[in-house]
Design goal:
The protein is mainly α. The protein contains 18 helices and no strands. It folds into four domains: 137 residues, Four Helix Bundle (Hemerythrin (Met), subunit A); 124 residues, Four Helix Bundle (Hemerythrin (Met), subunit A); 112 residues, Four Helix Bundle (Hemerythrin (Met), subunit A) (Up-down Bundle), CATH 1.20.120; 126 residues, Four Helix Bundle (Hemerythrin (Met), subunit A) (Up-down Bundle). Helices cover 83% and strands 0% of the residues. This is Alpha-catulin.
């Protein structure tokens, strides 16, 4: 099994050949005498030598990396030393294999022992050396990976510094120079984060990185126009709000990149030896780390709550319904009730859907209570054992949860599809806002702003419901950050229109509205794409599996049967 600290595909690929070679050595069965015995011993010798040579080359590279990176030098040299010693131990064990085989062959003409490779003491020694080698090589790889992480975090810090410099410029000349520098650093960060995202094994981390990169990419043009409006109209509060919002959102995206990159890399190395980046310990206080994880990694969805209840119910086949199981089942039902409020309290959920959800919730409660009663009755029997009554109660709960999932999916997708059908409303509202701003018609602008903000609220509700029914980590993350970006950037379209209303002849103010409107349309497009992806995923998961075997039409079967029957009878 691969070390759980290995979070990237590249590290896994680096370790896989070594794991394969070591598995071969550990599982080599030694033969009982004959020519094959000598052959096996020589093969083991060659493998042992090859492993040692490969390890020596590997740690030489590790030591070179250590020399170039003082912050990991001590830990890297220690890991390399352990790896070299383990590689040498494996080679020596393989060298002794031939002598052991010969001894076994000479005792009773092949009847004694099981071959050197099969002796218990040989096997135990090989397993110990193999574990030591894998552990030390893994440490070397993790330490080397911190160098890659360091480069990425340095690139992120450069962008952060450039953002601060952009925020403080007071004239166009300084701004053009600072923005050009910022653009070059953003290109480097985009390249490094793209490579890292592709390398990450964890689906949720990949999706989080993609969300952060998308915010940075889309925010750059808004940062440009909002900053230009601020420089042209420094007294304008609405233009400053536009700009400050973009700065804030970009910094949040970089914080998320930092979190994703750091997860499992610096902390896992820190567990072996204190690796430091920029002179700082990567470890954080438990409280701050826990808060950030709750913010970024919370998975409070209806899909997760129902799945937890279903898993707990399935377990009762083996555990029955003891006190701990009863508490877990009751807590799972309470969690479903709590999260259900996002559906039942939504102003956009139809009366029919709301009633169906509440009825199904009551049914789940009823069936779980029935399961608990059956379980308690079984516990009073000697000996307690599951029977048909328990199986019936379990199936009743699972049927209710399955119907609840279907109802929630229908409710969310119906709302989402209404948005997809109302695509023209987006463009109409944005055009109305721009036209009201250009006409300096504050009353009409306020009217359209209220309608637009109500529309934003509706799309946010849709995102929230989509996240509840999404069945994969990547779709849940996409829905979550879609909702966040809509909440943050949606109202900024109205703010940009307010600026245009104050300066209707300003070319840059008009351009700023266009850029923020484009961002809004992109976000709405993301929700529509997400709706399709979630719908397709649910359809695929609900599709009944095809029956195994070759599927042949009756006519084809008759043709083949007529052709093959004479041959069969002749045979």
């Amino acid at each position: 099994m691969m070390d759980p600290h290995i979070k990237t595909h590249s590290l896994e690929r680096s370790l896989l050949p070594l794991v394969t070679e070591i598995s071969t050595l550990v599982s080599s069965p030694g033969e009982r005498g004959g020519a094959g015995c000598d052959k096996t011993a020589r093969a083991l010798q060659r493998v042992g030598q090859a492993v040692n040579v490969a390890v020596d080359r590997f740690v030489t590279v590790g030591e070179t990396i250590a020399d170039d990176n003082p912050e990991i030098k001590v830990d890297m040299y220690e890991a390399c030393k352990e790896a070299r010693a383990a590689g040498l131990a494996i080679e020596k064990l393989c060298e002794t294999a031939e002598a052991n085989f010969v001894v076994d062959t000479g005792v009773g003409g092949g009847g004694g022992g099981g071959g050197g490779g099969g002796r218990p003491e040989y096997r135990a020694s090989m397993i110990r050396a193999a574990r030591c080698l894998l552990s030390s090589v893994t440490r070397v790889l993790l330490l080397a990976d911190t160098v890659v992480v360091k480069q990425l975090l340095l690139a992120k810090d450069k962008v952060t510094h450039s953002l601060s410099r952009l925020e403080s410029v007071t004239n166009f000349t300084e701004f053009v120079k600072a923005f050009s520098h910022f653009g070059a650093e953003m290109v480097e960060l985009a390249h490094l984060t793209g490579d890292r995202a592709a390398d990450l094994k964890d689906e949720r981390r990949r999706a989080q990185m993609a969300a952060a990169r998308q915010v940075l990419d889309r925010s750059t043009m808004m940062l440009l126009t909002a900053s230009k409006v601020c420089l042209r109209h420094p007294e304008c509060l609405t233009s400053r709000e536009n700009r400050d919002t973009v700065f804030c959102q970009m910094r949040r995206a970089m914080d998320l990149i930092h979190y994703v990159v750091k997860d499992g890399v610096l902390d896992s190395v820190n567990a072996h030896g204190e690796a430091r980046i920029n002179g700082q310990s990567p470890a954080e206080s438990p409280g701050s780390l826990r808060t950030r994880q709750e913010d970024w990694d919370n998975n409070h969805t209806m899909y997760g709550a129902i799945r937890h209840l279903e898993d707990s119910v399935e377990m009762t086949r083996m555990t029955l319904c003891g006190p701990a199981v009863r508490d877990r089942l009751c807590q799972a039902v309470d969690t479903i009730c709590e999260r259900m409020q996002d559906f039942t309290d939504s102003a956009y959920t139809s009366h029919e859907h709301r009633e169906n959800i509440l009825l199904l919730l009551d049914r789940i409660r009823l069936q779980v209570n029935q399961l608990l009663r059956v379980g308690m009755n079984l516990e009073q029997k000697e000996p307690p054992s599951p029977g048909d009554e328990l199986e019936t109660a379990i199936n009743a709960v699972l049927t209710a949860t399955r119907e609840m999932k279907h109802q929630l999916q229908t409710t969310a997708l119906v709302q989402a599809e209404e948005l997809v059908r109302g695509a023209c409303e987006e463009s109409e509202l944005i055009s109305a806002l721009k036209n009201a701003g250009l006409a300096t018609d504050q009353e009409r602008l306020d009217e359209y702003a209220d309608r637009f903000l109500e529309h934003i609220e509706h799309i946010q509700e849709v995102c929230k419901l989509l996240r509840h029914i999404a069945t994969t980590d990547s779709l849940q993350v996409a829905a979550k950050y879609g909702e966040i970006n809509l909440r943050i950037y949606g109202p900024q379209v109205v703010t940009a229109a307010q600026t245009l209303c104050l300066y209707p002849t300003s070319k840059i103010a008009k351009e700023n509205v266009e850029v923020f409107a484009d961002m809004w349309l992109n976000l709405v497009g993301d929700v529509k794409s997400l709706t399709k992806d979630i719908s397709d995923q649910i359809t695929a998961e609900n599709k009944p599996p095809e029956k195994a075997g070759l599927r042949i039409s009756p006519s084809a079967w008759e043709t083949r049967h007529d052709q093959q029957a004479p041959q069969a009878y002749q045979a």
